[in-house]
Amino acid sequence: MSLIWLQVGQCGNQIGQEWWQIITSSGDDADRYPYFSRDGLINAICVDSEPKVVRRLRQQVRKGYFRDANIISGQRGRGNNWAYGLGSRLCEEIRDHYPAGHLLSVTAAPHESGETPLQHYNALLCLSWLQRYCDGVLLFPNDEVLKRAASTTDKKSYTSSGLQPAVSLPAMNAHIASCLAGLLYPVYSLKTKSTISIGLEPWELIRCLCPMASMKYLHAVQACRRGTAFWDKVTSSVVQTVPRANPQGRLHHSLSVLAVTRSSQDYSFLLSRDSVLTKLKHSYRCVSWNPFPVHCWTDPQNILDPSNHSHSLTVCANHSSAADLITSVLGRARTMYDARAYLHWYRRYGCEDGDFHEAFNTLDSVVEEYTNLGQQ
Question: Which of 7, 28, 207, 259 has the highest count of CB atoms within 10 angstroms of its CB?
């Protein structure tokens, strides 16, 4: 199955660098096939409006990994303005030109405390475009990624709120890349009988987690351990981080859940499989009307930590907590829009009121679907 990895913008290319570092560290060339061509070069196109981030990728070009022709950069930024950007438009163009293809987006949502004055408009328009043109969206809110990355570092620094873990931007990108590798790196469960990977992982993830086009936002969490594989404890550390209810106290539910286990201890997970999957089903509150809500993939190697006696559990769910983020974006964007704030920055690049109205309507429908998920 053919597969192209498209990296767009500063964030996309920085996460991509961490992703390729994990993938190229694998000693098994056969498992690289879905992401590498037969000539050994990476199946990736890297796009950025500025050259600074892709310069590092050009260093890897000289090492023989990237095709130089697949690295596309400009000389000017986009001013953090969605109407002047690239990512959403590329999704639209890809869908128009390849309607039978499958698009899985990896999206980092900005910190709620604010990064730019335009971020709420940008998030509104971006999320609505992804809803229209992608088949699945792996959504990583920066605030949540910061907490996950902080839990894995011992360094401390003083901030305005006191002593806090010191988390770098590369550490946050590495966490996202680790979750992606946990989910998408070839697994034994989906290989042929001759143990050859044919690149089914992204397609199968979309198939089992996004069966309904109205709900396609995915929540991912991961736990990695060394030593004896106590899978029940690993599972407990994962489910503790699952959002339980929205700000109004309504319990969250999941449409479906995928668990991917990787262990250097062969197939130790199989001994605990039933209890782990039952725990995930209850903790994620899978809807009762889905007869097969929990899916499981296994692999006897842990690419995330190649050392002996290491194991990882990566869980991805179509979870109604996505509505919390979208509701926050809608509220803040509406406040700005009603005040007519900053709209001139979008109009100068052809983004009109109709685009905003359609974005509001699209995301309102998504929130309604997720809010009613547990009642269906």
Answer: 7
